[in-house]
């Protein structure tokens, strides 16, 4: 460390890499949405945010993380990558002048980047590594300006310090930030955002100096992009890492630097980081193998922070296994501390609040608070192994009991998966199916549809809550849902849609709804996690063998179809997405669990067909999400994930049109797998990325129906008719019009009815315009 740094403070023996930031009762979501709605002002939003931050800090201290810098300062109003964009002042030119007179990006400018304006779409959104979290993709070009345009990280540190708690400030590291960025629209061909490294390092340095002046002893810089196989050559990344941390560690005044590398094994870049002058290095020792003594030799006097507690899933830690890993690492590293493998932002707050779960199931689980205790226990083990003996023995006994608990393994389920043959995974050739579906459906060119859900109004949510509490009978609730379905069907008829949906008012969540109706699952009451911005979900718990004891969606679909002569889609969530958006058992291969779910869905499809449903959509928005971070592991994953979808759908008749839906992913990476799903129609997010996907479809020669989305539902803005027409015209240039469908990017559950109706009306008008132009061109 430079001589004029603040006095060295040892890295805390126990800490988390991050903590849920939405609040135990989603206080942040409520405050942010109230601000967007104009119900509170910026001062009230700031007060709510500070209350959440202080509550988090105090809770972690109660759980034993009491050392200086043990509490991570990982709060965000929306997204950690957007936070880095704000601090760097990296505002795309297309947004105009968002920086205020003081050169700062205020809260309104920050939210503008996230939510867009009437004339500008927001930053593109995509998945954060192999999680169900989404981040906003920075747009960087040769002319992008960089300046320290936000002081929020410093202010948050000072606020906690004024309340007696020294936190560890956090920001996405410079190499990961640039590797996750996309070239701006006006950048020349071949431009790589990583080429701007030298231009952002002074801003990072300035931030470090301000934090040092505020009294911060440590800062955490996250570099998860280093655990992923990148398209950028490894030598370029290695040079960027070496240069970045040469500059940052050489800052005249700075906190001590922890570089964290969550979500997988660091592998090749470990030596590069070990050779820099950073002060501590975090590795994911839960998912990745324990590095060899030779690999760790270059660390010297740096602290190795071992992520031996899984921050990404909810199962109780096998403390005996983690202790053995720590013993191995302690023999090779001079200084050793304990942490989580990733931020615990991906898990709920506290399992003790889930009183509706059985004592047995609760004993198997560890949410964020329990993980903090596990980390503290393992840190105590490092100092005195005997102090953790009782906790280690208890964990081992619980894990052993879980393995033989009722429902974890079912002979009937395993007999069925064991009897599967190749024929169970295949349908007729597409040409045969296409002809049968044309005869059955009689659809026009560029058929219009929506993805599935319609707005879930406050009345719908209130009815569900009252029904759950017994204040509304099942019969009354069912009638209210039927009334809403009738409203949605009539609206689509009036708008002129070709293939309709029932709107899914009866569904609380596209995964939880199925989890509540399948055996082998349980659901939480307070188990909220952040998906993006103010959007939160409650992942279900898949703990045992999965089977379906009765139809789930058939009655609703059959009722909706009775209201119209147009085709009505049956709506199912696919096996991969059910796994990806649940906390899945960790005691068997994912492919085996996926096939169990696939068979349950296969039975549901058969019942939908028997009820007269001719179009069935099996959503797989998470197909790309679970893709392993290392390319060597891709083929095995894509094999079982595609197979589970085909298992679910292969029993359908030729005349039954199978749809699927994917969203917010880099589709070019898995275009072969998307093709391999063998769906008759695939709808894909495309509006926010301005139809980037059509180039992948064209180069691949994708031959079945496809609906690149023309309406970004993740923003409140209403796309105009001209905008949708332009997007459709772009699609027609790259994909044969006979294959094209017209649809929004995703379901409409989170939107309001006024904006939804206007947007869907514009979509139909644009479709008619493009249909007319195609007809004219054909003459």
Oligomer: single chain
How much strand content do the residues show? 5-15%
Structural class based on helices, strands and sheet pairing: alpha/beta
Describe the global form: globular
Core attributes:
disordered N terminus, 7-stranded parallel β-sheet, 5-stranded parallel β-sheet, alpha/beta, 27 helices, 12% strand, 779 residues
Write the layout of secondary structure elements.
Blueprint: H1 27-36, H2 42-62, E1 71-73, H3 80-88, H4 107-115, E2 125-127, E3 134-136, E4 139-140, H5 152-162, E5 167-172, H6 174-180, E6 182-183, H7 197-214, E7 218-222, H8 234-249, E8 256-261, H9 270-274, E9 280-284, H10 293-296, E10 303-309, H11 319-332, E11 335-340, H12 359-363, H13 368-383, H14 389-403, H15 411-418, H16 430-441, H17 458-468, H18 474-495, H19 512-515, E12 519-522, E13 529-532, E14 535-537, E15 540-547, H20 554-561, E16 569-573, H21 575-580, E17 582-584, H22 590-610, E18 615-619, H23 634-649, E19 657-662, H24 671-676, E20 681-684, H25 693-700, E21 705-708, H26 721-734, H27 753-778
Parallel strand pairs: 1-5, 4-6, 5-7, 7-8, 8-9, 9-10, 10-11, 15-17, 16-18, 18-19, 19-20, 20-21
Antiparallel strand pairs: 2-3, 12-15, 13-14
């Amino acid at each position: 460390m430079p001589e004029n740094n603040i006095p060295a403070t040892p890295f805390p023996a126990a800490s988390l890499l991050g903590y849920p930031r939405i609040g135990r009762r989603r206080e942040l979501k409520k405050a942010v949405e109230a601000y967007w709605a104009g119900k509170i002002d910026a001062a009230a939003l700031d007060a709510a945010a500070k209350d959440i931050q202080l509550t988090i800090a105090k809770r972690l201290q109660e759980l034993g993380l009491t050392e200086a810098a043990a509490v991570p300062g990982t709060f965000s109003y929306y997204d950690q990558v957007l936070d880095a964009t704000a601090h760097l002042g990296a505002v795309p030119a297309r947004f105009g002048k968002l920086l205020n007179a003081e050169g700062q990006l205020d809260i309104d400018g920050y939210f503008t980047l996230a939510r867009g304006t009437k004339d500008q779409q927001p930053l593109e959104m995509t998945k954060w590594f192999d999680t169900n979290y989404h981040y906003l993709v920075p747009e960087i070009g040769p002319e992008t300006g960089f300046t320290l345009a936000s002081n929020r990280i410093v202010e948050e540190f000072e606020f906690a310090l004024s309340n007696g708690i020294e936190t560890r400030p956090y920001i996405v590291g410079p190499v990961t930030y640039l590797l996750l960025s996309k070239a701006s629209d006006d950048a020349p061909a071949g431009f790589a955002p990583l080429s701007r490294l030298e231009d952002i390092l002074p801003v990072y340095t300035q931030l470090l100096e301000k934090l040092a002046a505020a009294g911060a002893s440590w800062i955490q810089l996250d570099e998860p992009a280093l655990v992923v196989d990148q398209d950028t050559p490894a030598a370029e990344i290695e040079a960027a890492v070496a240069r970045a941390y040469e500059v940052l560690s050489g800052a005249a005044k700075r906190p001590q630097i922890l570089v964290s590398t969550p979500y997988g094994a660091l592998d090749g870049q470990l030596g590069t980081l070990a050779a820099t002058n950073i002060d501590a290095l975090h590795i994911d020792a839960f998912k990745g193998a324990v590095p060899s003594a030779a690999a760790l030799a270059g660390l010297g006097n740096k602290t190795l922070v071992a992520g031996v507690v899984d921050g990404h899933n909810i199962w109780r830690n096998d403390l005996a296994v983690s202790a053995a890993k720590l013993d191995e690492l302690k023999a090779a590293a001079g200084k050793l501390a304990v942490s989580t493998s990733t931020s615990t932002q991906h898990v709920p707050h506290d399992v003790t609040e889930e009183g509706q779960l059985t004592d047995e199931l609760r004993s198997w689980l560890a949410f964020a608070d329990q993980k903090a205790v596990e980390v503290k226990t393992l840190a105590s083990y490092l100092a005195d192994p005997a102090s953790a003996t009782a906790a280690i023995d208890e964990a081992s006994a619980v894990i052993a009991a879980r393995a033989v608990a009722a429902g974890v393994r079912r002979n009937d389920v395993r007999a069925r998966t064991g009897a599967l043959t190749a024929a169970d995974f295949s349908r007729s050739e597409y040409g045969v199916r296409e002809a049968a579906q044309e005869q059955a459906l009689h659809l026009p060119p560029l058929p219009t549809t929506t993805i599935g859900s319609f707005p879930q109004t406050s009345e719908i949510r209130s009815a569900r809550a009252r029904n759950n509490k017994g204040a509304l009978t099942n019969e009354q609730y069912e009638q209210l849902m039927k009334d809403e379905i009738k409203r949605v069907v009539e609206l689509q008829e009036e708008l002129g849609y070709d293939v309709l949906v029932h709107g899914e008012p009866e569904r609380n969540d596209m995964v939880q709804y199925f989890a509540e109706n399948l055996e082998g699952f349980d659901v939480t009451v307070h188990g909220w996690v952040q998906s993006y911005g103010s959007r939160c979900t409650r992942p279900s718990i898949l703990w045992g063998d999965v089977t379906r004891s009765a139809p789930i969606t058939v009655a609703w679909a059959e009722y909706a179809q009775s209201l119209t002569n147009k085709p009505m889609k049956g709506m199912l969530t696919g096996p991969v997405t059910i796994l990806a958006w649940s906390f899945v058992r960790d005691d068997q291969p994912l492919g085996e669990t996926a096939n169990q779910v696939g068979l349950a869905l296969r039975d549901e499809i058969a019942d939908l067909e028997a009820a007269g449903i001719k179009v069935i959509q099996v959503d797989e928005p998470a197909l790309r999400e679970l893709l392993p971070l290392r390319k060597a592991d891709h083929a095995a994953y894509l094999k079982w994930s595609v197979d589970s979808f085909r298992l679910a759908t292969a029993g359908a008749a030729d005349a039954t049109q199978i749809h699927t839906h994917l969203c917010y992913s880099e589709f070019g990476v898995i275009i072969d797998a998307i093709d391999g799903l063998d769906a008759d129609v695939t709808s894909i997010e495309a509006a926010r990325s301005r139809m980037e996907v059509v180039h992948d479809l064209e180069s691949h020669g994708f031959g079945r129906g496809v609906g690149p989305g023309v309406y970004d539902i993740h923003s409140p803005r209403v796309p105009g008719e001209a905008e949708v027409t332009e997007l459709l015209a772009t699609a027609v240039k790259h994909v044969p019009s006979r294959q094209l469908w017209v649809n929004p990017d995703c379901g409409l559950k989170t939107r309001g009815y006024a904006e939804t109706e206007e947007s869907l009306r514009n979509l139909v008008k644009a479709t008619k315009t493009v249909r007319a132009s195609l007809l004219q061109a054909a003459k």
